Amino acid sequence: MLPARPLGPDARGQWVQRWTSPEWTQAADDWVRCRLAEYGRRISGVPVTYRARFWSVVRCYPTVEGLVWLKENNPGHRFEAGLVAVLAQLAPDDVIVPIAVDRERSRMLSDDQGSTLTRPDVADQATRRTVVQALARLQCTLLGRVDTAEHPGIIELAPITAGDRVRAVVHEWAALQPDHPLRPEPALLRRAARAADVLDRRTASLSNAAPLDLEINDVYPANIFADRSTGVLRLRFFDFGNAVRGHPFVSLHGFLDSVVEWTGASLSHAHREALYEAYLAVWRDRLDADPYVLRQDLATTEALVGVHRLVSWLRLVPYADSLELQARAEIPHQYLATVAEIAG
C-alpha cells in the first residue's frame, strides 16, 4: 500500500473534514465493498485515504487482484464520474475504465494502472512526442461524440468570450472586501483587465477549423499512466475534473506548460516546433482544413490556458468555506497572473 499523502492547508475545511470522518469512510468502504462484490472481488487489506483536498478525495483499497482506487469530487467538479464513464466507452484504450460509477455522489472506482509519467520521461523529447500524439489521437477520437450538456457543470468557453470572462472575474474580485481571501492586489487586477483586451484581439483571428469540444484542461504528467509492460510505451489519460467545452488545442499548451514546470527549463524552439508538428499531423488527418490555418490557430490558443484553468477552478468557489478559500487562494490568483502575463 502507498503511504497517505500529508493533509494540505485546507485540512480543517469542511470537505477534508467530511472525507476523513468515520461516517464518510464507513459509507465509502461499504460502497466499494458492494461494487467489488458484483465482480466476485473483495477488499483484502486495510484501505488508506491517499489524498484529501477540498476539491476531491482519493482512497486506496487492496484486493487480491491488485489495488483499486476510489475518487469522489467536490460538487464543483461533480460531472467527472459520469464523463469518465462515457469516455471509457468511446476510447477504452486511452483513458481509465472505471469498475463502477455513482454519478449522484460524483464517485468512481477504478483499478490501479501502475506508474504515471516521471520527470525523466518529461525531459525526454521522444516521450513528449508520444504524449502529444496520443493526446491528439484521443481528442480526434472523441471529437463531436461527447455531449457536454449531459454532464452538468462542464462550462462552455468559446474563445471569443475569453476576454469577457476575464473582465467578469476582475469586476467581481475588485468588488470584494479588502480582507476577502480572493481579493488580489490591485495591480494584478489592472493587468488582467488589459489582458482581456488582448484576448479580444487575439481570439478574433481564430478560425472554426477545429470546433469547440471537450478540452481536458489538465493534461499533466502525473495524470497520465505510462505502461511499458510490452516494451512499447502505452499511455492512458485520467483526471478529467477540470474539463471544459472549449478549443481542444488548449490541452496541448497545458501539457507543454507542465513540461516546463517539471523540467525547470524552457523548451527549445526546435523541440517545441517538433511537438507542434507531431500534434497537428494527427489533427490534419481528422480535419479538412488548411495546415497553415491550423498552425495559426494553435499559436493563438496558447493565450487561453490561464483562462480555462481559472474558470474551471472558480466552479469550486460556491462550495468552499472561508478556511478553504483562505488556504487555496493562491491557486486562482496564480491562474489570473498567468492570464495577466499576456498584457506584457
TrEMBL record:
Organism: Kribbella sindirgiensis
UniProt-recorded name of the protein: Aminoglycoside phosphotransferase family protein
InterPro entries in UniProt: Kinase-like_dom_sf (IPR011009)
